[in-house]
Amino acid sequence: MQIIRLLFCLPYTYNTKNSQEITEELKRMQTNEQMRTITVDIKDLYVNLPIQGIIRTTKFWLNKNINDSELIIQASYMLETIMKQNYFQYNEQFFQPKKGIAMDSPISSTMAEVYLQYIEETYVKQWLDSKEIAYYKRYVDDIVIIHDQSKTNEHTILHEINDR
């Protein structure tokens, strides 16, 4: 697993280690009456991730961080094969879900992180740059967002995140 993580070189820009870190950052933050806080818990993170989305974002990170095209092709093929062999057993029967990844798989947390960091890199970063969102931090599947109500609203943010 460590080798796979090294291939991605994820930035972990918006991840937090603990609530104390968030508390310290929020103490230093300047707010006004237009600021609103949203907390999000991604429901059933692993089983709701789109497999094709994971494959697409995997290729994005590999292409961004690796210059060896042969290594990118091999790593992409390997990860795509793993993702397509996503089975679970229930009542002595095997099933292959159309979306989601198995929670107990050794690769699940890495693939979830690859997917979520892609969303953060492409969408959340834009919202922060445009000042629609003033603050964003995530701990695994728990997210804290502070947004400017005069520029966007909770429904727009949640709709955009859920559409990814």
Please give the structural blueprint.
Blueprint: H1 2-8, H2 19-28, E1 35-41, H3 45-48, H4 51-65, H5 69-84, E2 88-90, E3 93-95, H6 108-129, E4 133-139, E5 142-148, H7 154-162
Structure notes:
There is one protein chain. By secondary structure, the protein is an alpha+beta fold. Helices cover 51% and strands 16% of the residues. The chain is built from seven helices and five strands; from the N terminus they run ααβαααββαββα. It has helices at 2-8, 19-28, 45-48, 51-65, 69-84, 108-129, 154-162; strands at residues 35-41, 88-90, 93-95, 133-139, 142-148. A three-stranded antiparallel sheet has the order 1-5-4. Strands 2-3 form a two-stranded antiparallel ribbon. A hairpin with a 2-residue loop joins strand 4 and strand 5. Helix 4 (51-65) runs antiparallel to helix 5 (69-84) and helix 4 (51-65) packs across helix 6 (108-129). The protein is globular. The two termini are 26 Å apart. The mean pLDDT is 89.
